[in-house]
Amino acid sequence: MSDLPSGTVTFLFTDIEGSTKLAQEHPHEWETLRARHHAILQSAMDAYNGYVFQIIGDAFCVAFHTASDGLNAAIEAQRGLKTSEFLKNSEVSLRVRMGIHTGEAKAHDNEYHGYLSMSLVQRIMSAGHGGQVLLSHATENLIRSQLPKDISLRDMGEHKFKDVIQLVRVFQVVGPDLQSDFPALRTLSVIPNNLPPQLTSFVGREKELADVKKLLQDAHMLTLIGPGGTGKTRLSIQSASESLTQYPDGVWLVELAPILDPLLVPRATAIAVGLRDEPQRPVIDMLCDYLREKKTLLILDNCEHLVNACAQMADKLLRLAPNIRILASSREALGIAGEVTYRVPSLGLPDMEHLPSIESLSQFEAVKLFIDRAAAAVSTFSVTNDNAPALAQICYRLDGIPLALELAAARVRMLSVDQISSRLDDRFRLLTGGARAALPRQQTLRAAIDWSYNLLPPNEQVLFRRLSIFVGGWTLEAAESVCGGESTSGLVGSDDILSLLEHLINKSIVIKEEKGPATRYRMLETMRQYANEKLVDANESDALRNRHLEYFLVLAEAAAPHLIRSTQLEWLAQLDADYENLRRALEWALSKDTAESSLRLCAALGKFWETRCYWLEGSKWMKSALAKSTPDPTKAEQIARVRALNWDVALASDLDDFERMKTSSELGLTLAQEVSDRRDIAIAKFNVRSYLSRREKYDEAFSLFEESFAAFQELNEAYWVAISHKWLGIILFNKGGQDYLGIATQEVELARKAGERKHLGETLSELSYWLFRDNRLTEAEKYNREADMMLKEIGSSMNDTSVFYAQTAWATGKYEEAESIYMDVQERLGLLGEKNLRSPAIACLGIVTMEQDKLDQAQAYLEQALATARELEFTRFIAFRLAELSNVFYRQGNTEKLKQVARECVPHTKGLHKIHKVHPLLMLLQTTYMQNLQISTKGLGSIDTAQTEVALPLDPITKHYWNRIETHARDVLGGAGFESSLAEGQKLSVDEALDLALKTVEEM
Predict the structure, then answer these.
(1) Which of 97, 365, 451, 835 is the Cys-Cys partner for 348 at CB 3.0 to 4.6 Å?
(2) Interval 564-580 mean pLDDT
(3) Helices marked H in 740-836 — which ranges?
(4) So what's the pLDDT on residue 52?
(5) 128-132, 322-326, 795-799: which has the minimum mean pLDDT?
(6) What is the CA radius of gyration of the chain?
(7) Would 70 be classed as within a structural domain?
(8) What is the CATH number of the domain that holds 717?
(9) Model pLDDT for residues 260-283, shown as the tens digit of each residue
(10) Is 611 a domain residue?
(11) Cα separation of 307 and 111, whole Å?
(12) Closest Cα to residue 239, out of 213, 268, 205, 260?
């Protein structure tokens, strides 16, 4: 294996001609014949040091160190096949074709890497016939002076092979015992055609190539449609070149782009197939007579400006010449009987939100094309970790349009990939400088789209540029509402929009998409930017933006009440579909002198942002809208400000921005009491109370929440009743109320009545938590699954129902599984800008990593969680994190740090309610139980008393740590000693137990 040919390698490929047919017609003899064939070939290869690196069915792939060995092995194999007594006596004749080529290839792990060399030898072999041995000019050069006696080489001339840019000179091996005469080689050169040589590689499009070739087998006429620059011409030529053998009478490309006179279409076609004018005879009649009996493929390239003429000619040809096929490329279908259309898509693009590795990125067609053309422009170009994101961004923003990508790739001569990406907002100035020999409209991106735009009648031009006001697509209703009206080119009425839109779809300018119940439409972003420039040039931009804002403000306000009802899914989907338009509308609203429209739009979108977890973005829009002021605001504007402030409080709460919660809630209540209705006032009061609750001022908040709860009941506001009840439950829990499961069950009932899924999912998750704490795990999982379903229905990024499974894994000692889940949760919450729930998730990561003895990692997690608790000023969480850190320092043997956090933890814990003191005390006891089991057991006794008083059993995780101490204490103290110490501890308060634990720590 160490002598495997590598570097410059001579390859010999063989194949039994018609093997599939032989196997089908002679199934009983076939396997025996193939085995004999294999033995003869293997013997010949071995005799000349050939390495058979692959056998595919009956085809051998062999590598040689020298060209002479490859030639001699081929001759030996052909002679062996011809003289074999076994084969001569068989009724079945085996005829083997062979091809030889010498080129560069590398051997690695018994496999060869050298696509160009191996693909060429495969094509040379496939061009031959059974019994024929062909070799390339490269191999002929090496063996010219070393030919075996009686062997000569017959020059078969230069031939064109599929996907090979240069013509290849081919030679046939001639000698005694070798057949000499064969039919013409099966190469592209044999079929008459005028296909131009392709000087650049054809990238991707495997599916499209297969589709086009398959459709051409059945359809008499196939039209490739799509906007300019999508590669219709290149796909046509490639499909035709790969199908040449199906058209023995020729494949002819008719280039119509330079033709301006429709009357010249038949003449251009006649010239392409090689006909000359006949005086006094119509060209179309001459064409029909010539093609009548021929099996030919005509490629009518770029028909869009000559659609009628092309349609008339194609229709007549297909009627009078039934064996021909026509492959057309156009912006729109020709519209004749028998025509099949195929829309050519843009090249495949990566997902910008989940970019793959560099290796995987280069497999996407658009990226592959950019890399190929960039490397052609600058030979040293390569994709790196640094430029890969910008490269993907270029491909995405250019919609995967091949022409645009090629023009962008050419710019690597002057600019870095990042610079090209940053300049795409001015893409029509950037993407110029195509090949000088190309058609003028292929030399710049603007020229390519100019060509399509100039072919449109005036009213279609008007609609085309007006549709650019939409971002991310639109519905028919939106287009009719926004795009109708007078223009410099005439009136485009709302009633005309449907038919004009259909024309633009047919001309590949607008794309129709079936998404949900409503059909939507969109343009490629490159087209949209071009159309928007035209809109600005026509002085229509401001008027259209006003109408666009008005339409989407009405949509958002219509959606808003449904977002807190059971009908929210339908309306969420509508807002999702038009979110880019809503963003654009907000930008325009914020540019106006008055604040009313921006405030109304923010207020209408508040619940949408909150539900979709767009907290950071929504908060940014809210700040901008609330910062706008009008000297003498109308009452409508003031009411809009109240409603925006109310949702600003909700977003601030999600982001744990307490200062903003306080400011917006107080201002919102003051203003609401001056100008707004009972509902707005009730919500504003609720917001003030939610701020007090978030700041742990539970006594102040409790009575106020009861008032809000009653007000919302009077107003029949089911959603706000449910939300108020939830906050009441939170306060009752933190104040030490005891009917936790009862409260959670009531919350679920009220949430079901309201029908809003996010709140329902959260209350179901909360009920699941209390059932988990009550050790009712089967019921807990049931409600957790329902919560997961609800939150997934609305696509909530805040869905933390997986925490249930993390807790279950944790409680049973499956720390790695729990760690993985908590890692995912905290990363997801981090992306949202959330701190309140993320901090405990990070703390849980700290504890489960500590249990795996990854102490430095655990310390880092818990210190991060502690820092957030201090930032948010959450006394309870500060106490929890300090107690958890004490465990880490204890296990590290860092006594000084242990004493430091214990001294801080105990006073923090004493300020908490009884139900919140249990966890810190239990964590501290874990740092003392190896030192003083009596004290630790007494601590367990005080916890037992506290849990009994609050009627709250230890949850499975807490029970896990309790059991750890209890098991060790019983082993050491004995059953009686343990029970005695436990009984003493049951007489102690939790605060007294905390003091004992701290004293034990101090004595370490």
Answers:
(1) 365
(2) 93
(3) 740-754, 757-773, 777-793, 802-811, 815-832
(4) 93
(5) 795-799
(6) 39
(7) yes
(8) 1.25.40
(9) 888 999 988 988 888 887 777 888
(10) no
(11) 52
(12) 213
First to last CA, the chain: 68
Torsion of CA 796, 801, 802, 804, to 10 degrees: 170
134, 125 Cβ separation under 8 angstroms: yes
What does DSSP assign to residue 6?
-
> Considering 343, 366, 392, which residue would you say is the last residue of a domain?
343
Instruction: Report the C-alpha gap between 222 and 328 in whole angstroms.
Output: 6
Mean of all residue pLDDT scores within the chain: 87
Q: Which helix (H) or strand (E) holds 103?
A: strand 96-108
Whether 187 shows a pLDDT value over 50: the answer reads: yes
Domain extent at residue 334: 206-343
Q: Which of 294, 313, 343 is the last residue of a domain?
A: 343
Contact 492, 525 (CB under 8 A): no
* DSSP-assigned states of every residue in 568-601: HHHHHHHHHHTHHHHHHHHHHHHTSSSSHHHHHH
pLDDT score at 572: 93
> How far is 33 from 26, CA to CA, in rounded Å?
10
Give the confidence band of 737 by pLDDT, cuts at 50, 70, 90: low
Residues 6 or more apart in contact with residue 794 via CB below 8 angstroms: 568, 569, 572, 611, 757, 758, 761
Share of the chain above pLDDT 90, in %: 38
DSSP state of 494: G
For 372, other C-beta atoms within 10 Å of its C-beta total 19
Least confident span in 145-154, 307-316, 470-479, 696-705: 696-705
Burial class (CB in 10 A: 0-12, 13-18, 19+), 472: middle
Tell me: the pLDDT tens digits for 740-750? 788 889 899 99
Residue 441 has pLDDT above 60, yes or no: no
Q: Which sign does the torsion angle of CA 782, 783, 784, 788 carry?
A: positive
Answer yes or no: is 121 within a domain. Answer: yes
Which letter does DSSP use for residue 262 in this model? G
Alpha carbon 152 to its chain's center: 59
**Which tens digit of pLDDT belongs to each residue from 61-73?**
999 999 999 999 9
199 — pLDDT class (breaks 50, 70, 90): low
> How large is the greatest C-alpha to C-alpha distance in the chain, in angstroms?
124
- Binned at pLDDT 50, 70 and 90, residue 184 comes out as confident
Please tell me the pTM assigned to this model. Answer: 0.70
Same domain, 793 and 902: no
- What is the rounded CA–CA span in Å between residue 592 and residue 595? 7
Give me the residue label for tokens 């011409």. Answer: 233
C-alpha–C-alpha distance, residues 171 and 845, integer Å: 71
Q: What are phi and psi of 108, to 5 degrees?
A: -145, 125
Residue 59 pLDDT greater than 80, yes or no: yes
In one letter, which amino acid is 66? T
Report residue 409: phi and psi, to 5°.
-65, -35
Q: Are residues 145 and 169 in the same domain?
A: yes
540 and 459 in contact (C-beta within 8 Å)? no
Residue 363 C-alpha from the chain's centroid: 14
> Domain tally for the chain?
5
Range from 142-156, 794-808, 856-870, 929-943 carrying the lowest mean pLDDT: 794-808
Q: Are residues 381 and 442 in the same domain?
A: yes
Task: Give a three-class secondary structure readout of 778-800.
Answer: HHHHHHHHHHHHHHHHCCCCCCC
Does 338 reside within a domain?
A: yes
- Assign residue 132 a region (left: φ > 0; alpha: ψ between -120 and 50; beta: otherwise): beta
CB-based contacts of 822: which residues, under 8 Å, 6+ apart?
A: 803, 806, 841, 842, 844, 845, 848
Least reliable range by pLDDT among 381-395, 528-542, 585-599:
381-395
Positive or negative: CA dihedral 558, 563, 564, 569 = positive
Half-sphere exposure of 843 (CA within 13 A, CB side): 22
Please give the pLDDT value at position 246: 83
What value, to the nearest 5°, has the Cα angle with vertex 277 and ends 272 and 281?
A: 125
